[in-house]
Amino acid sequence: MTMRDLQNSVVHPLPNGRGSATVFDSMCGFRAARVRKRFLRIPQLPPMTGKITRRELLAASAAVAGMASLSSCNREEPLTPSRVSIVRAPAYDQRVYETVRLLLEEHRVDVRGRHVVVKPNLVEFEPESFINTNPLLVHAALEAFRARGAASVRIAEGPGHRRNTLDLADAAGYFKIVPNFEDVFVDLNLDDVTRVRLPRQFSRLGKLYLPNTALGAGLLVSMPKMKTHHWVGATLAMKNLFGLVPGGVYGWPKNVLHWAGIQESIADLHAAFPRQFAIVDGIVGMQGNGPIQGTAKFAGVLVAGGDPVAVDATCCRIMRINPYQIGYLRLATGSVDAQISEQNIRQSGEAISAVATPFDLISEFQSIRLENS
Amino acid sequence: MTIEILAGKQNSDGGWPYVRGASWTEPTVYSLLAMLAAGENERAARGLQWLRRVERPDGGFPPQANVEESSWVTALVALLPPGQLGVAAHERAIRWLLSTTGTETTAVYRLRQWLLGNHPPPEQAFSGWPWTPGAAAWVGPTSLAILALEKEARRRPSAEIGRRIAQGRQFLVTRTCHEGGWNHGAPRALGYESGPYPETTGMALAALRGVHTPEVARAIGMAHRFLADCRSADAINWLRLGLMAHGGMPADYCRPAGVECRTLPETSLAMLIGEVQKGRDVLWG
């Protein structure tokens, strides 16, 4: 690394956040903000004042350490373009069954004889809301994977804040939409667990207890809601994997992940599950102060593919967010030009420009807007 | 609801699952509390043996037998009568609780924040309990730890226990949501107010028995509103316990039809509430 590289990588602190520091700010925010800073690189050095403060000294040390760690990930590897589909879906109605079936057909998803685990994003007791993945879409996926010959298809989720998962699923409409829901559902918070050494070690977690249902999946299907996120910018297929971490072991919230670094933990979980497919519920997403307190945002799309990094990068572009500014995407790719580059994504269906719609961002994240960065 | 339901769900190793599958500490403790309250001591014996087997070398208890870390469930184990669990094991569980705190109130963390130039928010002045050591304190584990220590304090009062209970209660009071009650422990994030949950509101109220502050009064009001339309057995259980702790349970309350107990802790806790209604103080000692 040259001095010029280092100078170009100098990390600038974000503007001060709105409001006072709070409990959750301090539990997640310190770490999240530090990671955010690491990825917000501005190609200019700040004016020298001739005086180095304690904070600047510590920040500079952290930046150098961070760069060293990132550079070790920059391996030159040939890249096979990832295929990502964008399809229009104007409403949660019977048409989504056919849309999902065609998506799997297009990607030639082979699940014959395999155990499929469909992982929606269940967060809050909100019927017909834009917080949780819509149950009709999840049921459509369940049916489509069954039709493609899966040995079994389970719906599985471990919410991060609410302990009564089945009650939450009930309130979110799953019992009404999915026949015999309790027979096909696994509460990942209370599933039997196995201790797993994380293959990539982006965070300092090292090992995690993970639910056997997810570990035994022949295909893990991440089905998040397309949402903004007040700590990491956007929550999509990769962030959805937080729901795999068992609350029965780590609690509600799964605070150990916050302390280990939210972005790093997302990248760790992504690496721990190599057999994935992603279908993002972007029919009605959430903008603003997501993932819980934002407002509804109609995007009218489903985004799908076998590479969650490429799917998430595509969703970001639809939301008018710069995927290079999303820390966990950068960590997962290990290089700025890899899976998140549009050139390396084989796009099918609608063009991004045809469906792109800017999602509102809170003030702390204005700089990740595509137009601003 | 009978004790036979619990007996039928007991695993061959003596413990209980949440629904089915391997034994976990939380459903085992709640099932044991219900069994012991019903005088089913012989049936409880195998469950107590399971608990003694899974105790960790540090005196804490893991959430599941194959998890090699002590956690928040230690507070639940400490709710069991020492004479049943074993006096020494119970004493170790209490010691573990007294030595465990949220990382944000440790001296090392505070020093680190000072070096970074960060100013801890006022609510970090009080120490609560984390779900797992090495993380921050939250409302759920803090409430359960207070319940366990309060029960212990009635048996064997000590200044150390009294201090931790007082700190834990202040922790809870400072984490109330703007509209009253508690969520998981983050009433605000990035300057936005977050709303309360029924289950954690009930839990915290149970832990604040005998505490009279405006925050508690507002939480009681919120608990009444939650109870009127709550459809979750877990939440209803904790709301009832929380309101009972403050003598505020409506005399004419009738559990809504169709609300099912979906896990064994829900079933056991509902049985325990039945015992409390009969005047048996099985939770607070």
Helix residue percentage of chain B: 40-55%
> Major β-sheet of chain B, in short?
2 strands, antiparallel
Residue-averaged pLDDT of chain A: 83
- The percent range for helix content of chain A is 25-40%
Q: Estimate the mean pLDDT confidence of chain B.
A: 94
What is the rounded distance between the termini of chain A?
24 Å
Question: In angstroms, what is the radius of gyration of chain A?
Answer: 20 Å
Largest interface here, residues on each chain? A-B, 52 and 55 residues
If helices are DSSP runs of H or I spanning 4 or more residues, what is the number of helices of chain A?
A: 15
Termini of chain B, distance in Å? 24 Å
Molecular structure report:
The complex is a heterodimer of chains A (about 375) and B (about 280). By secondary structure, chain A is of the alpha/beta class. Chain A has helices at about 5-10, 25-40, 55-70, 95-105, 135-145, 165-170, 175, 180-185, 210-215, 245-250, 255-260, 260-270, 310-320, 325-335, 350-355; strands at about 80-90, 115-120, 150-155, 185, 195, 205-210, 220-225, 225-230, 235, 275-285, 295-305, 345-350. In chain A, a hairpin with a 7-residue loop joins strand 10 and strand 11 (about 295-305). The radius of gyration of chain A is 20 Å and the shape is globular. The model of chain A is unreliable at about 1-75 (pLDDT under 50). In chain B, a hairpin with a 2-residue loop joins strand 1 and strand 2 (about 190-195). Chain B is built from 13 helices and two strands. Chain B is globular, with a radius of gyration of 19 Å. Chains A and B meet through helix 2, helix 3, helix 6, strand 5 and helix 10 of A and strand 1 and helix 12 of B.
